[in-house]
From TrEMBL:
Name under which the protein is recorded: Winged helix-turn-helix transcriptional regulator
Pfam families in the record: HTH_20, HTH_HVO_0163_N
Organism field: Halapricum salinum
One function term, GO molecular function aspect: DNA-binding transcription factor activity
Superkingdom of origin organism: Archaea
Domain HTH arsR-type stretches: 69-147
Length: 180
């Protein structure tokens, strides 16, 4: 393998689920160079590509489909915080999670949709149609959380999104308590 290709695979091993733009930034290479080497690594069955929610993520071949999708979602700070809250506190109501994490209810629901879709969180309806959240696979999810090391750019983007959602949610005139 070439020195550049070794750097690409090393970065993917260190940060499973890294997305293309972050790979370009961390390697300080031109996007075309990274694309070229990724293509070679995919053809050699050393790297797996997983497009999810508008980003293409990269993994070494040891990760199964559920693990790849879980890692992709966990690169988002708010999704990680939701899972850590549920793992720490157990079953919780969405309103309580939104309040504890200080996120707009709409932001929480956006992340929950992805977490439920990727089989990381379960939503259960109980009496009076109240929703309770729980982690679908606690041990596996905890293991995936330990593998994720988000970049500064990822964290800043997540925080900016939360800020904007909070501002927009405040303008809507409804309260989180009304939506529980």
């Amino acid at each position: 393998m070439t020195d550049t290709r070794d750097k690409v695979i090393s970065q993917i091993r260190q940060r499973p689920g890294i997305h293309f733009n972050e790979l370009v930034r961390t390697l300080d290479l031109a996007p075309g160079q990274v694309q070229y080497h990724l293509k070679k690594l995919r053809r050699a069955a050393v790297v797996v590509e997983e497009p999810l929610y508008g980003k293409t993520h990269y993994y070494t071949t040891e990760y199964g489909a559920w693990e790849r999708r879980a890692l992709a979602v966990l690169h988002r700070e708010t999704a990680r915080e939701i899972l850590v809250h549920l793992l720490t506190n157990g079953r919780s109501r969405p309103g309580a999670v939104a309040e504890r994490l200080d996120v707009a209810r709409s932001t929480l629901e956006w992340h929950l949709d992805h977490l439920v879709e990727q089989d990381l969180v379960e939503k259960e309806r109980g009496q009076r149609n109240h929703v309770t959240l729980s982690v679908s696979h606690p041990e596996e999810t905890a293991r995936m959380l330990r593998l994720v090391n988000p970049s500064l750019a990822d964290r800043l983007l997540d925080r900016f999104t939360r800020l904007v959602d909070g501002l927009l949610d405040g303008e809507s005139g409804s309260t989180d308590a009304d939506q529980s």
